[in-house]
Design goal:
single chain, disordered N terminus, Immunoglobulin-like, mainly beta, Maltoporin, Chain A
Length: 997
Amino acid sequence: MPRLVVAGPATVFLACCVPAAALCQPRGLTVTVSGTVSSQTHIPVVGALVSIPRLALATYTNDAGVYRLSFSGDRLPQADSLRVERIGFTPRTVGVALEPGPNVVDVILTQNAVALNEVVVAGTAGNQERRAQAAVVALINAAAIVPTAPITTVEQLLSGRVPNVSVTHANGSVGSASVIRARGLSSVSLSNDPLVFIDGVRTETRSIGVNGGAVSTLSDLDPWTIETIEVVKGPAAATLYGADASAGVIQITTKRGTLGQRSFSQTLSVATSTLRAHWTPPSNFATCGGNDVLSTSPSTLCRGQTVGTIVSDNPLVRGDVLRHGSGNEVEWQGRGGGPGFGYFLGYGYLGERGTLPANDVRRHNARLNFTVSPRRQLVIDAGFGLVRDMNHQAEVGSNPYSFLLGVAGNPLTVGTPTDGWFLSGLTAVGIARIQNELASTRFIPSVSARYQPLSWLSQRLTLGGDIGRFFFTRYFPKNDQGWYGGNADLGQVTELRLALDSWTLDYLADARRALGRGWVLDASLGAQVIDRSVDSVSATGYGLATNASNTLSATAINSAAGARTTQRFVGYLAQVQLELANRLFLQYGARVDQNSSFASPSQRFYLPKVGVSYVVSEESYWRRHVPWINTLRLRAAYGTTGRAPPPGAALETYANAPFVFNNGTQGAGVLPLNPGNGDLRAERGTELEAGLDAGMFRDRLSLELTAFDKVTRDLLIQKPIPPSLGFTQNPFMNLGRVSNRGVELAARARLLTLRSVGLEAGATIATLHNRLESLGGAAPMTTNANGLNQYREGYPLGGFWSPHVRDVDVDRGVATVSDTAEYGGNPIPTYQGAFFGDLTLFRSLRVGGLVEFRGGHTLWNTTQWYREKVLTVSERFQRRATLSPNEQLRLFGPYAGSRGQAVASSAVVDDYLESGSFTRLRELSVSWTLPASSARLMRSRSATITAGGRNLALWTRYRGWDPESITFMPFGGLVATADYFTMPKPQRFFVRLTAGF
């Protein structure tokens, strides 16, 4: 008799929660139907629903595409039918014998190049089939990708799989954040991050800065519990989401059980990984002077050398600071159900140690989803997600305590307390003892009820929340070696307690009636309320008596600050859709939003949407004349969204200020802070997109082509006001316009479908043209202190501007530079894409890979600039005498303007504005599905061993460490593309065993 294998305490839990019928074999004659579901290229189809409808039996295929149904065979007929369904494939029904004992039925599903009947969740109302949607909605089948790919976060799952959705893995520290952009940057002062919904509930996605890096709440989520991800890239489809949707929407759907499944299956996956820092830190160089070579010199590298000797040192290599990191993963999932109910349970653990000291992450995820149908017309879905994350971030970036400032040290200090590092007395030992810990706990509950009282009327009500508590601690241990300087040497503690709460209430009603002559009317009405609150308390203290007690209460002197904001979005939406013969669809929708960010609570903004979708290939004339294009859909959409300002931005505000009475006592007073703006409006984004979806050569080739033009008006910009008004902050005003336009192409092909060999390949390619059309009369603005990244009309957001070398006069020994800053490059990639492939051999060996590319943009190699122009410790600077006189003057000056005025060497950055283009082998994996006999040795139905890696190769002309490594320098919605002592991404190699029971 087959056995159910559950490790540890899970056995007790399942025994209590799962019906006995799901855990025990039925008595009497037992019939078992099992097999493998695969595609035409022999790739296992994960999560396919396999059912015997007449017996109300169903189950899902596991990560190896294996299914199993077992039931009592008493008084059953000898034959029946087996139905197999999966999104993206044509459903198939096959005959099956129901004889006592094992019955093996393998099923091959035909993949739909263009799955027009696929249900789309994101941004839809009324008819949710893809054929009816006027705007493109990208789908990522997470359940099929994650088990065999080197993926540990949602950002990695998104990377390279959707055209014009760029994911920049900005920092190579484990547990650090990524930057996600959909169709470019469209705001100057507000966030350009897309909204994220989980099972219809808005969640809080925020990056929390951690000294040279950042941690994102999106990274907390476990990709193993995700069924699909749908990505809406712009206003054309995001109208139904209302305010803040201009930057796109990511809709995550988690895994669930199926009503009437009457079975239980589980999957256990364990993995181990190694992280390797595949870069070599550059050495520091210096030239020995007269005092440095003396026998009494503290400089050990120069002592006894001749004057002018160039010496070098590499503190990171000498101190063996970089190390091999490691990781461990455990994932368990259970799925089952019975008459009228279904459930999914999941638990995941990820533990990783980075390639720098003091960098590690431990993440726990648990999820329970339950579906029940008390009546035929009513289905209730309830879910609960729990996240517990402990994240330790190392000191990186340009902050004074960064490990990476080891490449900014001076070799002349080797042998002194500075010992070749950046700060006196501060070496790797002291830096490693600084603790940056972010502990987060999140609860993500949701409940949704779908009620269809009449055949033509359906209703959906969703209620859920994201309740997050974040506790960040930065700790400098008390020391007497003078590592940190100032109060930090006395022992310093900084704490931030942050509460992020978001609640969503969403109602939608759909009515569908036939009008005659093939016309059908779909009408939808709905409302949405989103309530968000942010509550933060921060405090800093110094003066610890002992390092054994390193809490804020143990400090001798401390101070604190706090803030609380609430924001409420209320939206009402309606949509009308006319459908002709299930081929032509005409949509008109609108949303009216109110937002508490404005001065007037009754202020509303209107967000319309129109669209058309036409399945041309289902016309009779098309099949006769163009048979090689078996599927063709034409679509076009126009829509509008708004983007609300920060809470209270429209209000006049004041700051607390103490004052002193005549008798010497202190009192509380106020000073003007921000004059506010009672006429403030939301930013308004409009987008027109048009395209086609085509399946050709009997669905062997699929194409998805889209052109878009997105314009954002009424930009929220803080315009400077005269200081004489007395306010210390500039108010937000609606000024200017930004445009983003481009073309997106996604293609996929089945190249080989032989008996023992299957090959699929595909590509995504996208272009993007970003332009600041107008600043509404405001002066050009800069994003950083040196003015290098600026907002100027007619150029991309955050374009590089600096004086350029115009002429080199060797005779005079001077290089002439322009008197004003000139345009130096676009920080936003103008093209990007990916190539991917999946090769299956002998139906058991599978090789998959993903190559990403990005280019047409400029990256500021700030690390090299700082080492050469500010600290002068680079080899090129110290050996500048070996360069030609022309090259030496061009790179290092001296510089002068056209009128002969001196120009600082650090102001000339021509040679450090480099092409950021790159191609990267992002993912590579090899999976072997063990023979059934080997799987049975583990008492499992299937077993797969997967090995592979991430970030395995890089091709680029960029001279820095990593063209993807960018420093978080936020200015509103922009993250400037500067590589400023940023940690490069490590290579990650992994081995994983996945077993299905």
